[in-house]
Design brief:
Largest sheet: 11 strands, mixed
Order of helices and strands: EEHEEHEHEEEHEEEHHHHH
Strand content: 15-25%
Helix content: 40-55%
Shape: elongated
Number of strands: 11
Distance between the termini: 119 Å
Structural class: alpha+beta
Length: 402
């Protein structure tokens, strides 16, 4: 008989995944190395039911064998009425886990024989579930939820290969180059032959071998430490570079999904008269009146508080305000400049609106013009507007800044 130590990676009823037990003497680096292999075997966990994943890997002075499976597949049918309770967590989620054994190189750098691959028969690992059941009701605040149990190297009874059968060396030679991964179709024949090839490589040549059997898709292995694997989406043996691989069978991008976020319908803003981005005459008039009142109050306060200087400043302000209203002098000049600016803005706004509605209103406008011609309204209106314009120009010429 040969000595192996136990490994259990699982969650319990309330506490999340952790190493419940690891071999005595395992360092944090050893745990990281172990975890980086185990995490690959737990991908697509929903496919584990009835399909345990066997794995074998070595590094440093350790060799690990194990299975990743559903708890219900490991403990099987039992007469214990509590068996259902220890296969689901407190949220009712079915429990999956990794259970395995670790062997250590002896002084001659030899390893014990590797157990046989047995497919869905995983009884060899069933005794390890006792670690989970013993820790099942541990609380997250208890020290036991954060500290792994150290397992001792003990004798293990198992079936082993006495003689290695002949294999197709071209088909089942394992890859040892960590820059690539070799993949095979996931069949029972391939699984068994690859397990034999890995066992021979480890025990006879101590080659740094790693093998995972039963992955759901090939992309699960590209960023892992495994150099060899079987996957359900592989048809024939192939070797692929890890560094250059992109996800297999990416979701196709259609023109609809590709540009949906880049181009979307944008509604033009609609402005009411009160929300117009261009200030109109009414808003200008209100602002003028408010400004005048504030100016007069400010001027009066300045004259009262600051004596002669305040009187000069306040008087100047009042003078400009009065001229603003009378359209004469400097105040009148400012008034005309501001008024023309807002008139231009109003004119621009009117041009935009006229351009927008010109097509729809053309028929109505033509009819209205015809009526104005008949009754003489348009001619008289034009004459009145012309006289107003001439009067305005004359006033501007006669008035100066002061």
């Amino acid at each position: 008989m040969y000595k192996w130590a136990s490994i259990v990676y699982s969650r319990t009823y309330e506490v999340d995944f952790r190493f419940i037990t690891v071999p005595k003497g395992f360092t944090s680096e050893d745990k990281d190395w172990l975890w980086n292999h185990i995490r690959t075997t737990t991908r697509s966990a929903e496919k584990l039911l009835g399909n345990p994943r066997w794995s074998l890997f070595m590094g440093g002075h350790y060799c690990v064998i194990g299975v990743t499976c559903m708890a219900s597949d490991l403990i099987g049918a039992t007469e214990d009425t509590k068996s259902e309770d220890i296969t689901r967590d407190f949220q009712g989620r079915p429990l999956y886990l990794f259970v395995g054994y670790v062997a250590e190189f002896d002084k001659r750098k030899r390893l014990p024989p590797i157990p046989q691959y047995a497919g869905k028969d995983i009884q060899l690992f069933k005794p390890l579930y006792s670690y989970i059941s013993d820790q099942w009701f541990v609380k997250s605040y208890q020290p036991a939820s954060r500290v792994s149990i150290e397992s001792e190297y003990r004798e293990l009874v198992y079936s082993q290969l006495e003689d290695f059968p002949s294999l197709d060396t071209h088909l089942f030679t394992l890859n040892i180059d960590d820059q690539v991964v070799t993949l095979w179709a996931d069949t029972e024949a391939n699984r068994n032959n690859l397990w034999i090839a890995a066992s021979r490589s480890i025990t006879s040549h101590c080659n740094p071998t790693s093998l995972c059997l039963g992955l759901e898709v090939q992309r699960d292995v590209f960023d892992s430490l495994f150099l060899n694997a079987t996957a359900t989406d592989i048809i024939q043996k192939c070797t692929l570079s890890k560094a250059k691989q992109s996800p297999v069978n990416p979701t196709p991008i259609t023109s609809e999904t590709q540009f949906e976020s880049e181009f979307s319908a944008v509604e033009e803003p609609t402005w009411s008269q009160s929300q117009s981005p261009f200030p109109g005459k009414s808003s200008f008039t209100k602002a003028s009146i408010l400004g005048v009142l504030c100016s007069l109050i400010g001027a009066a306060i300045a004259a009262r508080k600051a004596g002669l200087i305040g009187s000069i400043v306040g008087g100047s302000i009042i003078y400009i305000v009065v001229r603003w209203f009378t359209k004469k002098g400097s105040g009148g000049g400012l008034s005309r400049i501001v008024g023309k600016r807002f008139s231009k803005l109003d004119s621009q706004e009117g041009d935009i609106k006229e351009q927008t509605h010109r097509t729809s209103n053309s028929g109505f406008e033509q009819q209205l013009n015809n009526q104005n011609d008949i009754y003489g309204f348009r001619q008289k209106s034009q004459q009145r507007e012309l006289k107003k314009l001439e009067r305005s120009e004359d006033e501007e010429k006669s008035s100066g800044w002061f």
